[in-house]
Amino acid sequence: MPPMRARGIVWFTAAAYVIGWLLTLPLWIVEGGLAHWSANLLLPLMMFAPAAAVLVARRVDREGRLRDATGLGLGAAGWWKHWAFNWIAFPAFCLLAPFVGALFGLYPLDLEEFSGFRTIVVDAGGGSILDTIPAGTLVALQAGSVLLAPVFNAPFALGEEIGWRGYLVPRLARLYGFDRTAIFSGAIWAVWHYPLILFGGYSGGAPAWYSILCFTVLVVGISYLYTWITLESGSVWPAMLLHGSHNLYIQGLLDRATIDT
What we know:
The protein is an all-alpha fold and 261 residues long. The chain contains eleven helices and no strands. Helix 1 (3-29) runs antiparallel to helix 3 (49-57). The radius of gyration is 19 Å and the shape is globular.
């Protein structure tokens, strides 16, 4: 491994951990964790820790231009196909998941009273809106926003993607190839979240060890898609859209639609 490139990866990873963990340290201490009001400020700041870590790593790894080190260019020819996939196909896949689950008897889909959607709205503190707008209308509005919602959510993911995919993935790929790059970058990404799971209430009420196991499998698994789309497109923007869609539909919608068994 070229010493300078290795040092850049090590410095980037260490800086991403230190900056991100320091920013969210209060959430480990205060009562309520992610439910505390400060989480609305600290979590978005944490998401830009990997981008800040790139600037730290550039102190020892000055390979190429800053735009190349962050992946902020449009990318290779045909870049629009990768943008479209993450903008349209992934949200559509997520929205189809409940129907596939219902088809196999794994998910009790209620298309008459929309009881699952009602529960999500009430848990989010919006129960009063159901008194004025029918649940079916809200579901239709949610489906109609499928193309707009990822765009509004994606900028919050850009700070992470500049680091994980813009800087880290291309450097790992030159050293280790595709498979190990996906695994290594996914593992680094997963560990970055561990303190929130252990101390900040990111476990969703499940035992911490179980949440860490499931979260790691999820993140390392989906890192194959992130790695492929980044290396194929030569840009961080498709990964940003994918990350925004994931946070919105997997965490914001499907997680809340999942009940304890």
